[in-house]
Write the structure tokens for this entry.
Amino acid sequence: DFDLNCYSKGLFDEYSKVTQTVKLSCDKSILTTVTALFKVADMKFIGEDRYEVTFDTEISEEFLSWLFVNHSAVKIISPKVLTEAMANAAKSIYISYI
């Protein structure tokens, strides 16, 4: 028997309380949100409508949720553990609706 709650809990517990340096490519439309939520260590504009931002954060369920909500405006550049966590979370959501 597949227990989705147990599976999901394992996904997030593996990453929680581990601070990672995160680098994102973001749409200019969420610039204010990003700078308000995260202590930005570095920011570089890449064109008129996008910028790259670097900050330290825990890879948590809350952070992954924020990335899901803003998926059309944010692309993960690094770390690989964050892209893997997002992929696993997306699979978990997909499984719950098939």
